[in-house]
């Protein structure tokens, strides 16, 4: 089995020009949104990229998906450099990497039916929907938990959670190996978030693809991530497997983020209290074993 990561980004930098007075771009002035970011995503895993708004995580997602160009650095997919792809080569790459965006309503064309939205990536690739457009659309709708009889409806006729399922169906249409979820559940109600997270996990088990999951909500991240990378100020300040980052954070910024997570899930709070009690017991053990304490 190949050990080559599905995605490998090395020393990514993205700078944007800074506008001066009057809205005019000032020559030579730039803002560095992403600063020397390196990350890898293995086959079948979920890497969560987390941080506050403005930390650079969504810009990083767009860089690795080749939605925007890098200022410097390298993006490799399955070991091949895709940083400078264009034309047909870029089309082929986008068959392998799809994006689910934050706001389903703004990312879906309101004038298009579900059929046209879901089949658009295939048509963009110059491919015909297998089994015909209607059958293909209805099959994908069933897979993401939508009523296939609504294949001719428009996005505005669906709830937010349902519209996001359409976005997921569109991403699945070309059979990607990597799905980038850019704050894909942050605009949804908590109960709907859980439904979409469960759907994403189920699809990953069935298809074996990888996720780069962009989020600021650590409660959501813990439900889906295999590994976690924490971003602040355009840089990754901490990275590791999920439980290590959550249970033993090394960076002060990570500890601050975790401290802001509401303790609303009983199983998490119980586990946290158990770990705290175990640490306290270890610290007290020498004192409890002393003659004065045991009565010897």
How are the SSEs placed, and which strands pair?
Elements: E1 7-19, E2 25-41, E3 46-50, H1 57-64, E4 72-77, E5 80-81, H2 87-96, E6 97-100, H3 104-107, H4 114-124, H5 133-143, H6 160-172, E7 178-182, H7 190-207, E8 210-215, H8 218-224, E9 227-232, E10 235-241, H9 242-247, H10 252-259, H11 266-288, H12 291-294
Parallel strand pairs: 3-8, 3-9, 6-7, 7-8
Antiparallel strand pairs: 1-2, 1-4, 4-5, 9-10
Helix pairs in contact: 4-5, 4-6
Strand order of the largest sheet: 6-7-8-3-9-10
CATH class: Alpha Beta
Number of helical elements:
12
CATH homologous superfamily label: P-loop containing nucleotide triphosphate hydrolases
Give the amount of beta strand, in percent.
15-25%
Please tell me the overall pLDDT.
Answer: 87
- Measure the end-to-end span: 61 Å
Could you name the ranges where pLDDT drops below 50 across 5 or more consecutive residues? 287-296
In CATH terms, what is the architecture? 3-Layer(aba) Sandwich
Secondary-structure element pattern, one letter each: EEEHEEHEHHHHEHEHEEHHHH
Number of beta-strand segments = 10
Number of domains: 1
Portion of residues in helices?
40-55%
Summarize the entry for a quick read.
Helices cover 42% and strands 24% of the residues. With 296 residues, it is an alpha/beta fold. It has a single domain (7-88, 95-107, 176-288), classed as 3-Layer(aba) Sandwich (Rossmann fold), CATH 3.40.50.300.
């Amino acid at each position: 089995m190949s050990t080559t990561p599905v995605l490998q980004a090395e020393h990514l930098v993205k700078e944007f020009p800074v506008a001066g007075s009057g809205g005019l771009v000032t020559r030579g002035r730039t803002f560095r949104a992403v600063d020397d970011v390196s990350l890898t995503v293995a086959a079948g895993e979920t890497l969560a990229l987390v941080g506050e708004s403005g930390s650079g995580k969504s810009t990083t997602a767009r860089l690795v998906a080749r939605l925007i160009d890098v200022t410097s650095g390298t993006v490799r997919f399955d070991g091949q450099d895709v940083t400078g792809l264009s034309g047909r080569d870029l089309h082929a790459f986008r068959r392998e990497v799809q994006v689910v965006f934050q706001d389903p309503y703004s990312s879906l064309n309101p004038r298009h039916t579900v059929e046209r939205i879901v089949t658009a990536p295939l048509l963009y690739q110059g491919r015909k929907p297998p089994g015909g457009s209607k059958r293909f659309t209805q099959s994908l709708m069933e897979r993401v938990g939508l009523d296939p009889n609504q294949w001719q409806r428009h996005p505005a006729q669906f709830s937010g959670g349902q519209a996001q399922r359409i976005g997921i169906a569109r991403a699945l249409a070309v059979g990607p190996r990597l799905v980038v979820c850019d704050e894909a559940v942050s605009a949804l109600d908590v109960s709907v978030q859980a439904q979409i997270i469960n759907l994403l996990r189920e699809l990953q088990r069935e298809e074996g693809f990888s996720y780069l999951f962009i989020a600021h909500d650590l409660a959501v991240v813990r439900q889906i991530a295999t590994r976690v990378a924490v971003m602040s100020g355009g840089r990754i300040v901490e990275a590791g497997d999920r439980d290590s980052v959550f249970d033993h954070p090394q960076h002060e910024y990570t500890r601050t983020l975790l401290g802001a997570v509401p303790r609303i899930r009983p199983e998490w709070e119980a586990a946290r209290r158990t770990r705290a009690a175990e640490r306290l017991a270890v610290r007290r053990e020498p004192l409890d074993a002393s003659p004065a304490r045991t009565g010897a």
